[in-house]
């Protein structure tokens, strides 16, 4: 008879002679050696566990996680090595809020174009005089605005903790009232007259 032993460390499970072990311990197998006698082998096995984790996050427009920038909502996973030397898989459930604002005009009315659609906004007037920029809040929490004078406007939308500011929109009340215009002569290869 002879005996032997070995030690092994594995993550989650270990296969020895066709048997899968998932728990740490001392396991014994008996073989027949070349002389026809029993050969007893002891395996001292240490099983370390992998682990998983989940977290949730929400962000405006984009989110940075472990050096990667995400711009779309979804579930993302990264694999790390835990203190036992086994895999640690972490899943991030990410919600991206994409908020956008712009202004459109129909006649004398300005409308807020938002993403997501249908949000109310704050309307601001912006003027530059003598090198000074002045901004006034004209209307709060509204989807449309009827300006009373020619000026530049912008809107600010807030949704799910995210904010977006539109480009500056130049409103001309006179231009809004133009119903049609006539050009003459038509065709031309010189000067053109335009009548409103």
List keywords for this structure.
65% strand; five-stranded antiparallel sheet; 196 residues; mainly beta; rod-shaped; three-stranded mixed sheet
Oligomeric category: single chain
Number of strands: 20
Q: Classify the helix fraction into a percent range.
A: under 10%
Integer-rounded radius of gyration: 36 Å
Q: Please tell me what the overall shape is.
A: rod-shaped
* Count of separate DSSP helical elements: 1
Helices and strands, in order, run as EEEEEEEEEEEEEEEEEEHEE
Characterization of the model:
The protein has 196 residues and is mainly β. 2% of the residues lie in helices and 65% in strands. It is built from one helix and 20 strands. The strands form seven sheets. Strands 13, 14, 16, 17 and 18 form a five-stranded antiparallel beta sheet that branches. Strands 1-5-4 form a three-stranded mixed beta sheet, with no helix packed on it. It has a three-stranded mixed beta sheet with strand order 6-10-9, with no helix packed on it. A hairpin with a 2-residue loop joins β11 and β12 (109-115). The chain is rod-shaped, with a radius of gyration of 36 Å. It starts with a strand and ends with a strand. The mean pLDDT is 91.
